[in-house]
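Forwarding the complex inputs:
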Amino acid sequence: MVGITGYGVYIPRHRIKVEEIAKVWGADAQAYKKGLFVEEKSVPGPDQDTITMSVEATFSALKRAQIDPKKIGAVYVGSESHPYAVKPSGTTVAEAIGACPDVHCADFEFACKAGSEAMFVCLGLVSSDSIEYGLAIGADTSQGAPGDALEYTAAAGAAAFIMGKDNIIAEAIDTYSYMTDTPDFWRREYQFYPRHASRFTGEPAYFKHILGAGKAMLEKVKMKPNDFQYAVFHQPNGKFPQRVGRLLGFEKKQIETGLLCPKLGNTYSGSSPMGLTAILDEAKPNDLIFMVSYGSGAGSDAFVWRVTERINQVRDSAVKTRDMLNNNKSYLEYGTYAKYRGKIRKGE
Amino acid sequence: MSSPRYWRGIPQRYRLEAGKCKKCGKIYFPPRLICDECKSREFEKVNLPKEGKILTYTIIRVAPSQCTDQAPYAMGIVELSAGSTGKDGVKILSQIADCDFDKLEIGMPVRIEFRKIYQEGEAGIICYGYKCVPV
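Prediction (whole assembly, two chains):
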């Protein structure tokens, strides 16, 4: 049996409301809130990035896994906002948690799918007995160009999962991946902000891939949507995951536990993995969880998880996702947000 | 800070790795070669606890050049919990992040978080390490 032995999450305390961004750009805040189903988003502090959030999420995962970090044989960080263009995030994370030097590190990139990609690879390595435990992280401090629709959702957060064969809290029943070459969202080298193809990011991109992976996954495990207690999908906004869930046959009550985007924003590589952590915070033993990520470019990874009895022993060992999302918040004005995100051009 | 100098301090900056004298139990952070209490040269590595309380603090408004973007910010001396490392908590100098200055007070409980300390301009290394945040 292979699966999750520990999970953790990190969300910075800073937030900015949709109204605050819309005020600066003369946009209709209500239209954005209704159109995107997002009220506010998280913002990293000036001293936070993908690496710092990954480390903190991992400390929580270690508290739940209750293992010696030296037993972690792989550290994979999935992100589209690695702090360095050349120098791995994974080695800093591995060093900070005390996993070095007997460990394999790699940084993954696949737009918003890099986190689930790391999970997928760790499950494979553990399954083949190449490693005893693998650490998979999805983390991002995403940027949207000022005034662009993306600016209302591009947020920050991290989820970390320790995969193993012992003391599992959620068994990976099966996985399925669905990929095509679809240029719906991209960032060229040396460009600060990503570009996207507006409405093209919807039907031929997000919906096609999640539906493709989701339907094939259900067929592969011979299950129906009503067999599952929970479902979580990539959350570029609050609307898409609810619609794609309906199209696959899931009901609102199955989706709402993992739907963090309305108060969190889109944490890119952290998105559906963080939704999964919110579900694990509440799930009961034997509950089934359906998960499908999405990354532009484009592809989806699907997972079917079955929660085990051990969840009740470890759930309270670290901070819960909704507690971090809803407590200790600090709201920013646009000027401070722009400074924190490096959007202001300064003199030498 | 040069890469080699930063690299040498990674065990302390990332993991709060201290040296505990095997003879008298005194803890040194950062580690030392000779114990100034008993002159022993034998130490074991211990990781300091990640919780503590503020002993004193100040607000930095005129920051060193690498930290001007973060100003104003709070710096404090924090006494870490004794934990399993010894009878006295080790005192460290640390930035206190994510705090409201008017709510800071001596005795306030804090915990360690992994943060960016500063970066060497737009092209240099990024230096990570510990900061304290209110519990």
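Chain B has a mean pLDDT of 93.
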